[in-house]
Write a structure and sequence with these properties.
homotetramer; 221 residues; alpha/beta; Aminopeptidase; seven-stranded mixed β-sheet; two-stranded antiparallel sheet; globular; Pyrrolidone-carboxylate peptidase (chains A, B, C, D); Peptidase_C15 (chains A, B, C, D); protease (chains A, B, C, D)
Chain lengths: 221, 221, 221, 221
């Protein structure tokens, strides 16, 4: 991915965020992916990666700062989904915090809106069906997910989409991807190299795809 | 459940709907539950139960007719969730149809809104946390679910909540409950008697509960 | 279950055993089932039920005492299987202890034989396919399982079958049944009443069935 | 893995077998792994790989031919385990065929012994705990499994261990490894490259390990 002569002027930015480990775990594959992707060039864009605190509120404040600072063309937030076996392209963010466990600052909100008075949900503005197809063609386990949960991942996803719905962000796309555990964390899992490769493919596809494709990837229930 | 002296004047109505079998299956526990609950008295309300076609569009048209006809105080739609092990109280309906399999009329919409131009989602207006607690106290497997899928169940759930959001329906509550397979359909499953008992408890709780309780029942992802 | 005129002389005995709670849990459905079944008459047999310690070695010593004392015609050991959604009729006991967690006495053997020098495995001598059919016909979730694990349940199952293989026990049948969690323990689960009803049906079927039926109930892997 | 100067005389042989696709599937990752590993040198041994028919009886006849022809030092049979998320090191083969679906020749035996009159089970003679550790250290998803099912995989595994129990095969080790689906087959799955890498590590570890290590890897049930 290194290039001898980086394009000049500076290429547009893809903002990629992972999360700190949480729930007593020692690692979070999304933070390791952020480390690996930071500074890479993908489809003419430079990846700026950061690790958000796994904390309600503070995570979103940090994301807002990053967006203001880097003015990205695309924002991909990434979180760990223990128990999932595939790279999960999230379809929808919902306006509720309902925490089964405390966040990394000890807060455990129950049935509180992410943004009071805001819409019940936002759909991802990433071309998740095209991304699904690209991942599957690369031989990687991938799926569209109908829920990002109600913990900090959904919180950040919702806050991101609410921000990008403001007039100043026309044309900036964003969304959330959940990734499986590392093998050392339990089963099901995905080797880190496969996950990083998948994220690179997902970003490249999102940058290259104008209108999403039609591909059934719903859930019966 | 005996009703030697039915109250007079006629008690208010709870509208309960199940679905026809679909996906090649011979039975649908939600239809059997509708049959069992029809006509029962629960907490001073009379249950009117019906079985909706598992068909995009037609299911909602039928539901609208039933609502107009019976003017229920509460609407509980119920569907089968193969692969789930507990009675699932659905939190949110999303504005998308994305069918993995054809419905019973052969239609298979992909990424089509349930109602064009309408909000991305509606939250259930049932007290799902109080219902969760009531089911658990009765020794029945129950959970709050963050997604009702993108097939006909979510379609009906979304259409119901969109209708109930109209001014004429102030105070009418509604939501969706997913129930596990019958033992004959596969595993995990729940005996039909336990499912029906659970639905009765859920309805009674919804009728008796004004403001929902605070009880963590979210998902990490 | 009524027994106005208990048969005289004393009816033959079915020995049923559950286990103490383990792994930090407050309850074990197999112990509750033992409590419920103790003293019942099933198909002309009297159930003698006991709760074994969830301890390698001591559990088997206690089982041996019970067998010597009651000279049962049939022995059904029963244990809890967290994570299973159906009543599991175990096919085979293997000669190994490999404990992921300590037993209730703090022991955690790894790759130690249950009985040194004894065969690698014994098959259940219960008619598990007929029992499967009986449970399914009663609308209860049931399955044949190809592994009873490597903890105290398998230990007791292996020890039981090794004992019953001795010449003095010709005609005495035995086996192990795993049952799901109670709803309060997590998901998947089964209401206690359904589990007890299933055990009663399983015992009655085992007593009534001479030669097992042919019914495919294997696993692909 | 290529070596400029292959050792002379010819290196000892590791026999690796995969299976034909079955159950209506278009591919079987174990056959692709066989293709990839054939001819490779691992820890001074040459891999001879073959694809067995997914047929009761014929698979074992072919395995016997291969063993006679190549006189391997180690035999690793490999099969696909749809639904498993990790490379599964099988602990025990049981003496029963019980097929949920027909094999590739249309046969569907129920509760028939693999070898009439032979022991109920054999344990793998591979150092499965050391192999588990080696896979985990390489960041690959791995587990010890307590059942290889009752279909053709277990049939071949049992037949292999029964053969290796004969006096002429002292010192020849053998066992079975189950591998997850390819991503194109469904979820959970593992990219083919990760699976092949894992098999190479497993073989190298088996060749390098005299006595297995003590490492808890049992199942509670």
């Amino acid at each position: 991915m290194t290039r001898a002569h980086p394009p000049s002027p500076r290429p547009p930015v893809v903002l990629f965020t992972g999360f700190e480990p949480f729930g007593g775990e020692a690692a979070n594959p999304s933070a390791l992916a952020a480390q690996a992707l930071d500074g890479q060039l993908i489809a003419g864009h430079r990846v700026v990666a950061a690790v958000l605190p796994t904390v309600f509120g503070a995570s979103l404040a940090r994301l807002d700062d990053l967006i203001r600072l880097h003015q990205p063309a695309l924002v991909l937030c990434c979180g760990q989904a223990g128990g999932r076996a595939a790279i999960s392209l999230e379809r929808v963010a919902i306006n509720v915090d309902d925490a089964r466990i405390p966040d990394n600052a000890g807060a455990q909100p129950v049935d509180r809106p992410v943004v009071a008075g805001a819409p019940a949900a936002y759909f991802s503005s990433l071309p998740i069906k095209a991304m699904l197809q690209a991942l599957q063609r690369a031989g990687l386990p991938a799926e569209v997910s109908q829920t990002a949960g109600t913990f900090v991942c959904n919180h950040v996803f919702y806050g991101l989409m609410h921000r990008l719905a403001e007039p100043g962000f026309a044309g900036v796309r964003g969304g959330l991807v959940h990734i499986p555990w590392l093998p050392a964390q339990g089963s099901p899992c995905l080797p880190l190299e496969a996950t990083i490769e998948g994220l690179r493919i997902a970003i490249a596809c999102a940058l290259a795809t104008e209108a999403d494709i039609r591909l059934a990837a719903g859930a019966l229930d």
